[in-house]
Design a protein that fits this description.
single chain, about 30% helix, Rossmann fold, Lipase_GDXG_put_SER_AS, 8 helices, 8 strands, six-stranded parallel β-sheet
Length: about 325
């Protein structure tokens, strides 16, 4: 992303394993090349160009698009020197793109302390609006016009990125970003939610309890506290506005945020959201383990579930 000041390098990526038929498709770059998109907050990547036979099918469908504000935190020690995208995220998103046959658009939002919350929410919404410009096939980026299906959109994120994905889904439900974006579902991996009152197995004796609250106040100095609707969905009067019909939530057994993921399902039910939500708990794992151990059985199963969710097989 770029702003009027020096900002983090762009870290959005798109990778696909198949393409739409076209007489003159946009050219594919060499393997692992990063392309700056026409939106300064994203860039494109497709390390594996398709074979020529991919263009011979008469009317193949466009690919689902997944907007992914992935990040394990909404803060950065030095955002001006932040790398384009941590390798663990690049690898994880590439695996999902290849396995689900979907276009992935990863958002590089600004981070605290240089850019406190709610900058990350503003940037993510701006990226969604940019993607929405391609709904009619006449957006600023020809590659996205050609291959991304804006009628088949999913939001996803991990940790703080999952929190952002949740709020972007609410915003889609309450104000259309334009361009015919059709949000089908949301994937929340180990979502960063919290609150003043303990839920489930949470304990004030856990040293991480105060750390989570302190981190939130550091990222958002203007917050009203840990019952701020931006971190506690139970305090958000708009929570039932989520603009999709299905949500997939993953939590880790050893993650202190685990019970918040389970609690989230109850929050939506109590507030009248009428979609389907599934919460899955991986046993014996901690926060965002799937990034650092992508080939353990539970991480492979997680990706398979995400792929089925995106392709309406779940």
């Amino acid at each position: 992303m770029k702003s009027s000041k020096k900002s983090p390098a762009s870290s959005g990526y798109i990778k696909t394993a198949a393409t739409k038929n076209s007489a003159a498709p946009p050219p594919f770059p060499p393997a692992s090349t990063l392309l700056p998109a026409s939106n300064p907050k994203t860039s494109l990547s497709h390390p594996t160009p398709p074979s020529p036979s991919a263009f011979t099918s008469p009317n193949p469908p466009k690919l689902p698009i997944k907007s992914a504000p992935f990040s394990s935190t909404s803060t950065a020690a030095d955002s001006s020197s932040k790398p384009p995208l941590p390798p663990v995220y690049h690898s994880f998103l590439n695996l999902i793109a290849a396995e689900s046959n979907a276009v992935i658009l990863s958002v590089d939002y600004r981070t605290a302390p240089d850019h406190p919350v709610p900058a990350c929410f503003h940037d993510s919404w701006e990226a969604i609006r940019w993607a929405a410009l391609h709904g009619s096939g006449s957006g600023p980026d020809p590659w996205v016009n050609e291959y991304a299906d804006l009628a088949n959109v999913f939001f996803a994120g991990d940790s703080a990125g999952a929190n952002i994905a949740h709020h972007m889904a609410i915003r889609v439900g309450s104000e259309n970003p334009g361009g015919g974006v059709n949000l089908q579902g949301v994937v929340l991996l180990h979502p960063y939610f919290w609150g003043k009152d303990r839920v489930g197995s949470e304990s004030d004796d856990n040293p991480w309890t105060s750390s989570i609250a302190d981190l939130w106040k550091f990222a958002h100095p203007g917050t009203s506290g840990v019952d701020d609707p931006l971190i506690n969905p139970d305090m958000d009067p708009k929570v039932s506005d989520i603009g999709c019909s299905k949500i997939l939530v993953y939590v880790g057994e050893k993650d202190i945020l685990k019970d918040r993921g389970w609690y989230y399902k109850g929050i939506l039910g109590r507030n009248g959201w009428r979609g389907d939500i599934e919460v899955i708990e991986d046993k014996g794992v901690d926060h965002v383990y799937f990034l650092f151990s992508p080939y353990v059985d539970s991480a492979c199963t997680l990706r398979t579930k995400i792929c089925a969710f995106i392709n309406n097989q779940a």
